[in-house]
Specification:
It contains two helices and two strands, in the order E-E-H-H. The protein has 67 residues and is α+β, with helices and mostly antiparallel strands. The protein has a single domain, classed as Arc Repressor Mutant, CATH 1.10.1220.
Length: 67
């Protein structure tokens, strides 16, 4: 079985290989203000918007005892 990875930039000289897990695609609507905030935070943290949202959902589910 072939392993697939995505690359996340940690700094100008550091990268991290992250194995892909099987994932589903979802769609939802947010306000323009929320999107701008997500864009800004993701850029500050060096993350993609998807990674930021995934992390937020993961942290919420973990805090609620669902994971």
């Amino acid at each position: 079985m072939e392993s697939l990875f995505r690359v996340r930039k940690l700094s100008d000289t550091e990268y991290e290989l992250i194995p892909f897990k099987e994932q589903e695609t979802i769609s939802f609507k947010i306000t323009e203000e929320e999107l701008k905030a997500i864009d800004q935070i993701a850029k500050q943290l060096g993350m993609t918007k998807s990674d930021l949202i995934r992390k937020a959902i993961y942290e919420f589910l973990k805090r609620e005892g669902m994971l």
